[in-house]
């Protein structure tokens, strides 16, 4: 049990909620359960977090906040847009897989909570789409990508690759063939986005019989 002598802050409440989630799962992460783990009254916790839904949103938001800095940094990084766009998705996939492997109990709880914290999950996806759109926009400007609506193209990329980074598919990530599948999917997606047009196959010359 956490010491009640420490100042009660929202960060401390959320950190304790994460510990409760690891130990007991999302159904036990109520304000009362967290207050019990903190060794304080639930009224004290309610002064910082009013409802179970608000607590759930704070836990998911903390998870998102810890994940986003390396993704945001890629947008401002110099270099060709196609390379940075692939790095964005590789980084996202890597972060999700590492978290699923290193903290499976919390990841499972996060997967359940994020389905309920729809406003937080939607805002997270919106930011990911914006990051992708910024890179695609720069690719259009540099001539690497064809003229497209950057936001619509980014939305399509995240939808098409959801199997590789959405928590709902976490059980599939241990498949040793998954990286090769992603490479193939990415190659096809980039072929559609690339400004370079494939040349038509050369016509065979008809043989002339003398």
Description:
The structure is a single chain. 68% of the residues lie in helices and 0% in strands. It is mainly α and 210 residues long. It has two domains: 10-50, Arc Repressor Mutant, subunit A (Orthogonal Bundle); 66-193, Tetracycline Repressor, domain 2. Residues 198-210 have low confidence and may be disordered.
Which band does the percent of strand residues land in?
under 5%
- Report the radius of gyration as a whole number of Å: 23 Å
- What spatial form do the alpha-carbon principal axes imply? elongated
CATH architecture of the largest domain: Orthogonal Bundle
> How many domains, in number, for the residues?
2
Number of strands: 0
In short:
This protein is an all-alpha fold. It is built from eleven helices and no strands.
Strand and helix map with partners:
Blueprint: H1 10-24, H2 31-38, H3 42-46, H4 52-67, H5 69-76, H6 81-102, H7 104-116, H8 118-142, H9 150-160, H10 162-165, H11 178-193
Helix pairs in contact: 1-2, 1-4, 1-7, 4-7, 4-8, 5-6, 6-7, 6-8, 8-9
């Amino acid at each position: 049990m956490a010491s009640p002598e420490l100042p009660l802050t929202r960060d401390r409440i959320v950190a304790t909620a994460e510990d409760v989630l690891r130990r007991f799962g999302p159904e036990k992460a109520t304000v009362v359960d967290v207050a019990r783990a903190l060794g304080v009254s639930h009224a004290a916790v309610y002064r910082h977090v009013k409802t179970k839904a608000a607590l759930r949103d704070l836990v998911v938001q903390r998870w998102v906040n810890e994940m986003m800095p390396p993704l945001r940094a890629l947008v401002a990084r110099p270099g060709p847009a196609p390379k940075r766009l692939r790095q964005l998705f590789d980084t996202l996939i890597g972060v999700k897989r590492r978290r699923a492997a290193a903290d499976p109990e919390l990841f499972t709880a996060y997967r359940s909570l994020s389905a309920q914290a729809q406003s937080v999950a939607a805002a997270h996806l919106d930011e990911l789409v914006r990051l992708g759109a910024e890179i695609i926009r720069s690719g259009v400007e540099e001539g690497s990508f064809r003229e497209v609506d950057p936001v619509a193209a980014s939305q399509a990329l995240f939808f098409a690759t959801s199997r590789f980074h959405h928590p709902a598919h976490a059980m599939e990530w241990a498949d040793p063939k998954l990286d090769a599948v992603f490479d193939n999917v990415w190659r096809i997606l980039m072929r559609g986005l690339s400004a370079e047009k494939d040349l038509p196959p050369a016509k065979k010359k008809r043989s002339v019989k003398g």
